[in-house]
Specification:
The chain is of the alpha/beta class. 44% of the residues lie in helices and 16% in strands. A 6-stranded parallel sheet has the order 2-1-3-4-5-12, with helices on both faces.
């Protein structure tokens, strides 16, 4: 259960008003009281509701973004690019984390809409269940879906990447590295991205004549990657290559194999998807699909500004190309130069 401001005030033995002033740095409060309240808040794990605070202070010049997990390096990087693009237009970005939960997503979208922010970017938590609220909010103010989209969204604007092309690139790459058996370790059908990448894997395997083992499906989490590595180790035959649904899963897989004293890429090849900092800091470095995050933000902001200015129609879908970034996790044979997309 989340710690409330009242909990902090009661534990510190002060009024709610005093606790609020001490944590907010506004109003008159003694140094001793401020130190006591802040130490109590830290001890209890209290976190200021930045969304509510920002909305109470006014929404003029503010654009909101709702992401499923801001701690995911992909979304952290994406948010940074959005902040950069919006600051050039003298707009501020208000970040809300849905934690991939429908109730929290609905709450945050409705909170942003009720205060009439200039517009909203949203990464839907669900392909189907997120649709009613997102469709409703899009009728009230400018809205752009980013990275993921909802079901039957022809009236909603979307900016993301060509997931099928990205998965196709890594499949062709491991095929060229000599892989014959492959397995997909990715996310379930709750998101459009999970659906698209899994479908692209099946299509790509058939086109290349690869043999696909039974997939392992869950969520975009490092811990899931660790678990999946253990599951694969218990199988009768380890695949030549593992195609992960994102970099978090891929680094979990890599860590899981290394802990079991398996060689990557000697015993198994691993690929990721997103091109986050994780790909560079793991050992060996990760072969991954690089998403053009700066371009995604640039196009999405342009789409939102067109809606704000009443100069653009909703319902446009923009798919940007990805590029393959080769790392040590698939380096069995000499690497080749992969041309980077200019799209």
């Amino acid at each position: 259960m989340a710690v409330s401001l009242r909990d902090v005030a009661d534990a510190a033995g002060v009024s709610i008003a005093t606790a609020s002033r001490a944590l907010g740095g506004k109003g008159r409060v003694s140094e001793a009281s401020m130190r006591l309240v802040r130490e109590t808040a830290d001890r209890l794990g209290y976190r200021v509701n930045t969304l509510g605070k920002a909305l109470r202070e006014g929404s003029d010049g503010v654009v909101g973004i709702v992401v499923p997990m801001v701690s995911n390096p992909f979304y952290a990087s994406l948010v940074h690019e959005f902040e950069d693009q919006l600051s050039r237009r003298n707009l501020k970005l208000l970040i809300a984390d849905s934690h991939g939960e429908l109730d929290r997503e609905v709450e945050r979208l409705e909170a942003l809409a009720s205060r009439r922010v200039r517009g909203i970017f949203v990464v839907p938590a669900y392909f189907d269940r997120s649709r009613p609220t997102i469709t409703k909010i899009a009728r009230q103010l400018p809205l752009v879906q980013v990275d993921r989209r909802v079901k039957d969204d022809s009236t909603l604007t979307f900016v993301g990447v060509d997931n099928a092309d990205g998965i196709g690139q890594v499949l062709r790459h491991v095929f060229e590295q000599g892989a014959k058996t492959v397995v997909f370790v990715g996310a379930d059908n709750r998101t459009s991205v999970g659906r698209e990448r899994k479908k692209a894997f099946t299509t790509g395997v058939e086109e290349l004549g690869l043999v696909a083992q039974r997939p392992i499906i869950d969520r975009y989490l490092f811990e899931f990657g660790l678990s999946a590595a253990n599951q694969l180790m218990r199988r009768a035959e380890l695949p030549d290559a593992v195609i992960a649904g994102d970099d978090l899963i891929a680094t979990g897989l890599l860590s899981g194999f290394v802990r079991r004293e398996m060689s990557v890429p000697g015993d198994v090849l691993i690929t990721g998807f997103d091109g986050t900092i994780l790909a560079d800091i793991c050992n060996p470095t990760l072969t991954t699909v690089q998403q053009p995050m700066a371009k995604i933000a640039e196009v999405a902001v342009a789409q939102l500004m067109q809606q704000i200015d009443d100069a653009g129609e909703t319902g446009s879908h923009v798919r940007l190309r990805t590029t393959l970034r080769e790392g040590g996790s698939t380096a069995r044979l000499p690497t080749r130069t992969v041309p980077r997309s200019t799209t």
